[in-house]
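Why do we care about 3D structure at all? Because function follows from shape, and shape follows, mostly, from sequence. That is the central idea of this module. The next example makes it concrete: a single protein chain, its amino acid sequence, and then its structure expressed as tokens.
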Amino acid sequence: MYNIERKSEIMNILEKTGSVDVNALALRFGISKETIRRDLKELENAGALKRTHGGAVLIQQSSNTPVSTEYPVAVRGIQRFNEKNEICKKAASFIKDGDTIFVDNSSTTIYLAKYIPSDIRVTIITNSIKFLLEYTKNPNNNHLLICLSGIFNDSNLSVYGNSTLQSASEYYPNKALMSCSGISPHNMLADSSIHEVDTKRMMIERSQEVFVLADHTKFEKAGQIFLSSFDPIDYIITDNQTDKESLGYLDKTNVKLIFAD
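And the structure:
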């Protein structure tokens, strides 16, 4: 098991139980307690948990927290790591030669960077510094990357603001690939970043096709800020843990639900 997969599993356990024990984790993963302590320290530095004597506890996001506050993207990227990779791999299969795509700043879409086909010409527009950092691990001369201007958000590793909207307004992508914080049966997609939601709305409006990349947990919560109705959304790509039977409300829309392999 890779380091990031182990951290993802630790976060899953924390979300279910609220706390973890070093000895139990070492036994579960078949590794040393020192390695577990190092994992917990890295997760604490990322803002995901607080270490205690012999373990750690989850740092809860208060319901009274301002809507622009959420776990840093470094933490959210660890959560449900495998599901997000499966979703991005599926989403990348829709990207065709000559496409211009918009990729938002989210803990899901950062993994698109490694799945965009290397043998096709693609222009990628993004406000996500984290996505760009991931992309630099496997750069490709067939791909043109455009980073929108704006105010730097050091927690989300993104840019936002009026200049972001101004630079985004110059483009009309073939496809927008983005995530959200919640999908509600009441004809609503929601987000949690008040700084970035306007950029997402603009790209939804200007793109020929809109893909929403959402793991199964996104269907369990409504989110905090209205992002979009279902009307302009063409596809929702999710993982195989999503309960299809509970999503009958999508049958009344034009949204096509796609499950990652």
